[in-house]
Each structure stands twice: as structure tokens, then as C-alpha cells.
Amino acid sequence: MNRLQGSAEALSALQITEDMRGLDTQSKSLLQYAEVLAVILRDTIAEYKGYSWKEVAEFIEVDSITSTMEVSPGRTNTKIRSDATEYNNLNEKTSLFDLAFRAKNPQISTEDIQINLHIDVEPQKTYDVGYPIEKRGMYYLARRLSSQLSLALNITDYNRLSKCYSIWICRDDIPKEDQYSISVYEMVNTRNTAPNTVSKENYDLMTLVVIKLGNTVYNGDEEDEEYELLRFLNTIMYPHKDDFMDTVSEYIDFSDNEALHKEVIHVSTIEQIKYEGMREELTAELTEELTAELTEELTAELTEELTAELTEELTAELTEELAAELTEELREEGIQALILDNLEEEIPKERTLVKLQKYFNLTEEKAKQHYEKFTSGEQNIITV
Prior knowledge:
Layout: E1 4-5, H1 8-18, H2 24-29, H3 34-42, H4 53-59, E2 86-87, E3 94-96, E4 99-104, E5 116-126, H5 133-146, E6 164-172, E7 181-186, E8 206-212, H6 227-237, H7 244-248, E9 252-253, H8 258-263, H9 270-276, H10 284-301, H11 308-344, H12 349-360, H13 364-375, E10 381-382
Parallel strand pairs: 1-9, 3-10, 5-6, 6-8
Antiparallel strand pairs: 2-3, 4-5, 7-8
Helix pairs in contact: 3-4, 10-11, 11-12, 11-13, 12-13
């Protein structure tokens, strides 16, 4: 494979994701990075067929991240600069795009004029949300297309309209016969009795791509046309596998920059875990890492007269207290994440309450209290 050169930011996000079991929010955040998006776009957008991942990444419009943190020299930031991701209209609910951005259309761009594709990527936890995902995708496309023209103009210039893509990546609740499949819906001319035909680029302005995963294990054949894409998506949408980084590294190259690895050696620290989301439990690897760090600090502070037995007892006690505090905080964040994910997918309240009782061993009353706590003020917002 012709791998992409990876950035420090993407590597940090991937390593945090690797350490999280079922963390949907973190899986979604990976899609902010051009090297990750390039793998998806190359095999879903017709205009990019035949291009390399590196070339596709260069088509994507990127913007620098303003930060007070020093950035290593020669490092190119690849975090996507999103378009306005919400459209408001009087008496309508607010619709939020997970990730909306622009990328160069190489088929019709020239040296002097760049024509962009308007793209949004929508990772979904479940395909079964009580209504056809495809209808929602077409609605999003229509809004994306209409947003390109200003209603304030006296004369509307329809020449300004550029093609829109909406790519939906559905993870769970896929019928067995549809698992690991890709469906493309586009506009076609089905009848034409006139002697002349209209150029496809003048009417084919909306394409919906629905990718269905459905199982933590992907058993596709390497000869399949969609093998590379589905294998990559299986890895990042079902993280916490032993070969997670090994598989990702077949697509994105992080190996030839020693400084890059040093920058992210501590990405799985406690504060980053608390910021990025929840974990169902502390992994043995993290516990071992924390124990080693605490032991090193205690050893430096204790006098030579302290015995190895005392050092071990103190380390175990501090580790146990820290683990207990972390577990309770992560449990609360886990409850919040489940509620907000279900609210985002428009899953009925009753089903959410059942999941809370099942996954977090809550009473019905406690489940209701948590639901009211974390849904206050969210009733009129659809978050995707």
C-alpha cells in the first residue's frame, strides 16, 4: 500500500482510541484528520477514483490549529477546517453535521480556478434508528446544496452550485445479509428523447453513500474492491484490538519520525482520558503504567532507610485510591455518553432507560434521574 505520512495530532488521537473500549465519541473524532479521511474518500467519491491516498489528502482543504503549545518545526497540521456545520431556519430544529468540509474536485478544476466538492461525513452508532437513514441522508444533501446560494441575492446564480456528497458510516444493528456493504445513491438521467444530452455535471449534484459495517470481525477477501476501505473502517470504528495500531500503520505511516513518537509517548495519561471520554474499566496496561510512575515518585522521596516492603505497600494503596476515583468519574461520563448518543440517534427514552439499568446496574429511578440530568436543554437539538 502507498501509505500516507501521518501527523502528530492524528497519532495522538489514534493511540487514545486504541486504549478506549467502545468509545464512540473518540472514534468520531478521528475523522477530523485528513490522513484518515483520505482513506475513506478515495473509495467512496467517484471523482477521486485512481488517485492515491496522499493525493486525496492534498485535495482536502485544511487549516492550521491555533494553539499556545509549541509545534515541532516542519510539521504540517492536518485537522480539517469544517464548513458551517449547522443550518438554522425559523421554526425548524437545529441540524448539526458531524463533519462538513470542502475538497478539490480534480475533474473540473483548472490551474486558475478550483472547484470544490462539498462533503459531510456522518458516523452512526446504529443503522436501526426507527426511520430510513437514507431519507435523512438525502435531506442533509438537499440542505448542503441549498446552502451554497444566498437567499439575499436578487439574481440567483445557479452556476455556483457544486456537487455534494454525504457519507454515512453505520456501525451496529445491520441485517446480516447487508453487513460490510457499500450503497451509492446518485442522480441519473433515466429517459432522454432529445437529440442532445445534458452534461452529467449539470444535474448530478447530490450523491449519498451508505457504508454498513455490523460486526467487530471483518472477514472480507483481499481481492474485493472495497477490502481496504472496509478493513480500515472496521479498525477505527471497533477500536481496542491488539492489532489496532499495526493495522492503521498499514495505511498511515508514523514510523520514520522518531521525534513524532516522543511527542505522543504520554497520550494515554489520566487527564486525556478524562477529557476525551469514558472507559468501562481501567485496563491492566494503564494500571501497570500508573503503578510504575507512582513507585518512581515515592522512591525518589523516601529515604534509603525505607524498606522495599513499605514502598510496595504505599504504592499499592495510592494506586487503589486513584483507581477508585477514576472508576467513579469514568462511570458518570459513561452514563452521560450513552444518554447523549441515544438522544443523538433519536432512540426513545424508554429504550435508553433500559440500557442504563442493564449496563450500569442502575435502578429505574436512578436511570430516570440521570436521563433528566443529562438531557436538560437538549430537547430541540438534533446532534449527529
